[in-house]
Amino acid sequence: MTDSVLRHLEDSKAEIQDRLFEYLRIPSVSTDPSYEEGMRTARELLKTRLNAWGFRNVQELDAGGHPCVYGEWLGAGDKPTLLIYGHYDVQPPDPVDLWDSPAFEPTIRDGNLYARGVSDDKGPSTIALETLRAFLAVEGKLPINVKLLLEGEEEMGSATLEANCLQHSELLAADAVLSADGARWRADLPTINIGSRGNCGLEFTVTTSNRDLHSGRFGGAVPNALHVAADLLASLHGLDGSINVAGFFENVPPVKEEERDAFASLPFDEQAFFKDLEATAYGETGYTTLERLWLRPTIEVNGMWGGYTGPGTKTVLPNEAHAKLTMRLVPGQKPDRIIEVVANHLKQRCPQGVGIQIAENRGGAEAYEVPKGLPLLLAAEQALEQTTGQKPRHVKVGSTLPLSDIIHRCLGLHTVMFSFSTADENFHSPNEFMRLSAFDEGFAAWVSLLRKLGED
Amino acid sequence: MTDSVLRHLEDSKAEIQDRLFEYLRIPSVSTDPSYEEGMRTARELLKTRLNAWGFRNVQELDAGGHPCVYGEWLGAGDKPTLLIYGHYDVQPPDPVDLWDSPAFEPTIRDGNLYARGVSDDKGPSTIALETLRAFLAVEGKLPINVKLLLEGEEEMGSATLEANCLQHSELLAADAVLSADGARWRADLPTINIGSRGNCGLEFTVTTSNRDLHSGRFGGAVPNALHVAADLLASLHGLDGSINVAGFFENVPPVKEEERDAFASLPFDEQAFFKDLEATAYGETGYTTLERLWLRPTIEVNGMWGGYTGPGTKTVLPNEAHAKLTMRLVPGQKPDRIIEVVANHLKQRCPQGVGIQIAENRGGAEAYEVPKGLPLLLAAEQALEQTTGQKPRHVKVGSTLPLSDIIHRCLGLHTVMFSFSTADENFHSPNEFMRLSAFDEGFAAWVSLLRKLGED
Fold first, then answer.
1. Beta-strand (E) ranges in B142-197?
2. How close A4 comes to chain B (CA, Å)?
3. Is A311–B32 a contact, with Cβ atoms under 8 angstroms apart?
């Protein structure tokens, strides 16, 4: 006997897809100001829909950045109240010429839906929102009280989420947070994420003279900004990828043996993982690939540029070089302190007489771990077991949900990630996609979880 | 009693400036195919003028790249024949936003003329061409036989100059080459360049996986192309700027003590040199600044890029990184061999499993030295002494005139540089300029030199 809400979701597949496509066509890129219009359009669409579906108190929460969209349905009396999270902003589409179909024109190929943001996080949050819509349409109510928080700055480190949480702590009060962001580890194994790495970042500019110089007239006697920047970046790591920054590992406890054992027992085809990427395994000696991804911190150069980068040759001795760095953090590391130790390393290594300017990114996040006994975690595990027939395994993710950290600090709440995107879906890369099958799996699990939470 | 040709040049100052401005407005950038139209326009202008002024056999010498413009006046019987060289191509104007006035709109400020290419080489070659025009206008003839060779690929390593010289060796036959390119060391001391460094270059691309990856999902376990590229670049030099590439110094003789002594006695205000650049002295231990510039080879990174370089943050783990390198060579170094040793270094240092593609630039040049007893060198020294009242000093230049090397190899001729641009005039940088006073000095010296060569 199919659940009536689930049947309704199946029956309205075509219109759900239409709504998702309309949402995906909006270029809501938060990090680049030239997409401001797309950000505004996405918020208007969400507010219109939430109002039409029966949510109340629909509004934008504006703390000076891209506002969050908020809505609530609180008609479930003394049932629990969940804060359901998603984000409407997406990564930039660059490099656009590597997309097989346009980033903002959703395209179905081979059972996958391709579009920028489909996996991160418009598809997964559509599963959550359409499930709620279906409950309201079929039953006129939700099994529990729900508050929706749809963020617009997830892809830029959740710059004003903290301010919004502090300003609206009463509005956002709940029993726990259920996140439609976070991605499944893999499509064929039910898993629950129990932790994520934190992050923080900085950008630096090296200046070696007051103008670009002729490489013949000045080369050999005047420092080259790109040489300095390359040396600074190379100095951050040993050749095996281990991090060479004083203070970076302070307060980082040794990796727990029980976690190592648990992760070692997960089905993980390392050869296939690297074959798919056409990459070679690499990283800190003494750790497995999963440990490097889930249990160890990183420093990554996300972008670097300087000098002449156009076609042909320009025999310039560049006077400026730039680099963007982000660090992934593990429990024990504080974003501010990590920025400080990396900045100190760069300043100390920078040769005398060479200028270095360091700009910190806003919005770092600490690593996050879900407490093992959290009721929402147990309910999510049961819902997944019910819909898949398998007991879900605990995994972690290497990426960052600043949400979990911020919500915990500002609202005192824990977050369970319940997303149906998958980690291999090219989010942050060209040809981002989401499996169409994940929508069915997601609807079943969300319906089951909401009913379960309403029963207790 | 003023020389009649020189007086004519003074009287026609206004029209000479008009012609120069028209020439400078043409964006004849050779390295970027989008400027093709500017290159063509510059050639048409030169041919029209040469024909109008009385040159014969005006034509383009096309060896598959940007053609040279050729013209000749051979009415001086058994007087010597000089091949006079200049180039009509200019550097790209980037970064355009650092120019105080538009790069292709000549602007006079404080006794200087600002425009891309004014100093390198449209101004200096205008001095040569207008001097010849004035002789023909005033006297109906030149003191010697002249062949003009105006190149269109100087800023891209003279890619097809060699082919042109070989194809047209009879047309270009002469007693020696007088170059209107090469730049004076300084404006207040008469000098003759007796040598220049050679050059060669390559571009490389590092590939660590088949797509850009999410820095959280993959960071720590998959190599980052920018980390690899930074390490490769950093590995080329020691911290003092000395070069760490096996084979780079093979066949490089020790620096000659007589040259060190001569250069040490030159008036050179090192403090002012670096103050003007707002830079700090830097380079190989055991050499002075002038020795580093004139007597020692270099490897410079001219450009480097990879990952996300737009506004804001993108937490990408870049799968590709690119760098452009040029090397400056001293006598004993062969461009092909230097490219080989640098490429070998990069390939050997590149970690296993990481792809590296190396593309050689066309058109490297060996270092060049003028023989001390060359008659044209002696005549040039006398002309400078006559017009300045001072005996010119010998200097070298750190940059490259592929011309000297190619002409010597292909035509067996030696080249004397007789340019009136100055080394501090921001060529290859924003706000390129030329001193207006250099035009008067240049006209006087060129008139004197041509008369002197005609007397012998």
1. 145-151, 176-179, 191-196
2. 37
3. yes
Question: Is A197's CB within 8 Å of B214's CB?
Answer: no
Whether A211 and chain B come into contact, CB under 8 Å, resolves to: yes
Closest by Cβ to B300, choosing from A30, A224, A233: A224
User: Is residue A229 within 8 angstroms of chain B, CB to CB?
Assistant: yes
Task: Decide if B233 and A227 are in contact by the 8 Å CB cutoff.
Answer: yes
| B352 C-beta neighbours (distance < 10 Å), count | 6
Whether B193 contacts chain A with CB within 8 A: no
Residue of A156, A277, A307 with shortest CB distance to B313: A156
For chain A, domains (ranges, CATH) are: 4-196+367-455 (3.40.630.10), 199-252+297-360 (3.30.70.360)
DSSP result, B40-62: HHHHHHHHHHHHHHT-EEEEEE-
Task: Report A:344-363 residues touching B (Cβ under 8 A).
Answer: 351-354, 361
Helix (H) or strand (E) holding A60: strand A56-61
Pairing type for strands B316-317 and B393-397 reads unpaired
Per-residue model confidence (pLDDT) at position A208: 98
Residues of B in contact with A214 (CB under 8 A): 399, 427-429
Task: Tell me which residues of chain A have a pLDDT lower than 50.
Answer: none
Nearest to A307 among B197, B297, B303 (CB): B303
Q: What are phi and psi of A450, to 5 degrees?
A: -65, -40
Cα–Cα distance list, B78 to B135, B175, B454 (Å):
18, 11, 10
Residue of A nearest to B34 (CA): A311
CA–CA separation, B177 and B174 (whole Å)? 7
Tokens matching residue A65: 């950045």
CB contacts, 8 Å: B322 with chain A? 309
Q: Please identify which residue in the block is written with the tokens 């890619």.
A: B159
B100 touches chain A (CB under 8 A): no
Amino acid symbol at A38 = G
Q: What is the C-alpha separation between B159 and B162, in angstroms, rounded?
A: 7
Half-sphere exposure of A234 (CA within 13 A, CB side): 20
Specify the pLDDT at position A1.
62
**Facing residue for A361 by CB, picked from B220, B223, B313:** B313
ipTM: 0.80
Read off the tokens for A216.
Answer: 């013949």
Q: Which of B304, B397, B429 is facing A305, going by the closest CB pair?
A: B304
E strand or H helix at A84: strand A81-87
In terms of Cα–Cα distance, which of B114, B187, B200, B125 is closest to B402?
A: B200
Task: Quote the pLDDT of residue B158.
Answer: 86
H or E segment to which residue B303 belongs:
strand B298-307
Handedness of CA B27, B44, B405, B289 (dihedral sign): negative
Mark yes or no for CB contact A428/B241 under 8 Å: no
User: Dihedral of the CA atoms B257, B261, B264, B265 (nearest 10)?
Assistant: -170
Per-residue pLDDT at B362: 67
Q: Hey, which residues does B304 pair with through a beta bridge?
A: A306, B323
Question: How far apart (Å, rounded) are the C-alpha atoms in residues B402 and B335?
Answer: 11
3-state secondary structure of A178: strand
Chain B hits for A318, Cβ within 8 Å: 301-303
Cα separation, B31 vs B28, in Å, equals 9
Residues of chain B below pLDDT 50: none
The per-residue pLDDT for A428 is 82
Residue A369 CB coordination number (10 Å): 15
**CB contact (8 A) between residue A428 and residue B31:** no
Spatial CB neighbours of A376, under 8 Å, sequence gap ≥ 6: A82, A175, A176, A178, A414, A416, A453
Is residue A115 within 8 A of residue A106, CB to CB? The reply is: yes
Do B387 and B445 form a contact (C-beta atoms < 8 A)? yes
Inform me whether the C-beta atom of residue A313 falls under 8 Å from chain B C-beta atoms. yes
Instruction: Give, as one character, the DSSP assignment of residue B255.
Output: P
